[in-house]
Amino acid sequence: MRRRYPDIGKKVSKLEQEAATLAASGEAEVADYHKLRLDIAQLEKKMMTEITRPERVLYFLNPGRLVKVREDGTDWGWGVVGNVVKKPPAGLGTLPSALYSSCGGGYIVDTSLRCSPGSNENRSWPKPCPPHPGEKGEMHVVPVQSPLIPALSKLRISIPPDLRPLEARQSILLALQELGTRSPQGIPKLNPVKDMGIEDSEFVELVNQIEELEQKLFAHPLHKSQDEHQLRCFQRKVELQKFRDELKNRSRVLKKLGHIDADGVVQLKGRAACFIDTGDEHLVTELMFNGTFNDLYHHQIAALASCFIPVDKSSKQIHLRTELAKPLQQLQDSARRIAEIQHECKLDVNVDEYVELTVRPYLMDVIYCWSKGATFAEVIQMTDTFEGSIIHSARRLDEFLNQLHAAAHAVGEADLETKFVAASESLQRVIMFANSLYL
Amino acid sequence: MRGIQLSLNQTQKLRLQRALEQLESLSSKANSNASVTIADTIPVNYEDGVLKGHGTSELDGEVVATMCGVVERVNKLVYVRALRARYKPEIGDIIVGRVIEVAPKRWRLEINFSQDAVLMLSSMNLPDGIQRRRTAVDELNMRSIFEENDVICAEVRGFQHDGSLHLQARSQKYGKLERGQLLTVPPYLVKRRKQHFHNLEQYGIDLILGCNGFIWVGEHIEAKDPMVEDQVNKSEQQNTKSSKNFTRLEEQEQTYTPPETRQNICRTANAVRVLSTLGFNITVEVITETVELSSSLNLDIHEMLGSEFCVLVAEREAERRRLLTKKKG
Q1: A199 and A291 belong to one structural domain
Q2: Is the reported ipTM for this assembly greater than 0.90?
Q3: Does residue B206 share a domain with residue B148?
Q4: pTM
Q5: CA separation (Å) from B286 to A286, B130, B138, B312?
Q6: How far is B323 from chain A (nearest CA, A)?
């Protein structure tokens, strides 16, 4: 990160120039409008989770119903429901965890949506996107997950049974456009309280809040002009400000830890930290400069260094020997201290999460025994991680120890260098470092 | 007053001595306890682990200095920083050097270090700006890029196994330096800063403080955008085929440095020489102050190297330091 510091400085000045050229007229209004939109989006999200509960929504997702689709900031507008399928519960690890938690037993709605015409020609990466303003769109049937539907409409249209021919889809598009022009206030939405019959008091409160905010939004002068360009400029300004703040906070962390001095010139500690990129450089440099590695002999060093290598969580209980427990405790204390410093400098970091993420002692015992000379058979008995993962981690550990050796050389501590070299050599035996595992 | 080779008369000697004593007394007291010579024991708390860094060694269970210098401590690391040492290169340093040899696929530069630095052909932008593999034709045309005795600005990319430096000059701000003066100062007078390239707009000159002690003072040249240059070159190439004689004269006119800029260059160079004789740290602020002092006194450029100006600069620096400590205290 240190090396990137001067480059980031240049990036910031470039972005600042951009910001200066962005039209700043009517900024307060734009800020207001932007905030309204953000608030509405947040409240709608809450409402979405309530509405899209299977027991409520299925009743209304009949073919031909108009639904609004919004995905993470891309507003698709209105589409027509074709079919609803229940999503089979996926196995562990095949879905990214965020998706899995949000649709445990969710539904997929095949919706006809207006897409940009060119986007579906490229078969190899068929990611449809909404048409650009002014572009004539085509209707395509897109599978949409139920959490992405923020609103349902009162209206239903009759759709032709076979949606494959282009004319059938175009007729749906025409019908949608017709409905759009007929209702100048926007297509009437299914009111969750009156039509769907949800009577939760909290929910009613939520709905009222959203209605209020939406009225404010429509009455806002900017809504009529719909100046996308201005809004986009404002969004970029907000992003730029966030970027600048993050830069300031990160350099404050570096100054506090002593990697750079008050003028921003890289110090000896920073130079040593530059050599390390396999593990968390802040933590490792703190350990080295606090003398934690001094009292350990090389087997312990190898075991301690293995905490920085990312491994899958092992569910087995970790029984550590006494000689490993103390260094691990020191490691966790340092990690906590660094997380606290980062938190003080207003970086978005959760202290406990940080300690858990950076300190991974699942392979400590394994590496310790391997370094001392145990056989591979003995070592794999000690944990339930896959053998391939153990070998992979051991190789990464070797690379990490080489980087530590380079850092110790930059600092000038000869004893430490020999320790790291000894640790690295004690690991390189037999099967873990065989050139090819197929021979 | 060590090593100041100036012919000073009696009053000047006294004034200089007084100014230097004032500066010494104003310097921070904390460091005076931390200076060590070779074989001094460094006071260290042995219960905590201690990391022995550069310039230290373990002898009979004690941490002993192997260099003369000042002891620095960072967390548990103890090391000795020498005050007047040979240049010690770090990755990312800005360096000014002179080409002494054109070798196959590389240039060798002299940089005031124990070994010569190497600038590979692949670490240098080609004149046409395109990113491509260097062919044999490029190798044969190396001389058209840099020749012997050219002055070059580059950045340290790394170290070779024998300790000599690898340089790279892949940005617009690096490359051949023309129309200026190269000065040599002791390398410990140039401290590492955020910026080593300075543009003194009021004089129209560029100042490059190389970390190795080579300082370049030259006429200000706009860093050209390579894309723009490509287009300009292409249109120029189409026009110059018929008018070769004219362009040579035009070029000479374009590259003619106005006498005022030349005077400014000489003035700045002399300011640097004076500072280096006195042993003051060389930074842009001090240089500009010295130049302003000389122009305010209406001194001729060659008079700046005289003893009177030297003493004046020392007195001025002592005064400035005194005011600074007054503000702080």
Answers
A1: no
A2: no
A3: no
A4: 0.68
A5: 37, 41, 43, 13
A6: 22
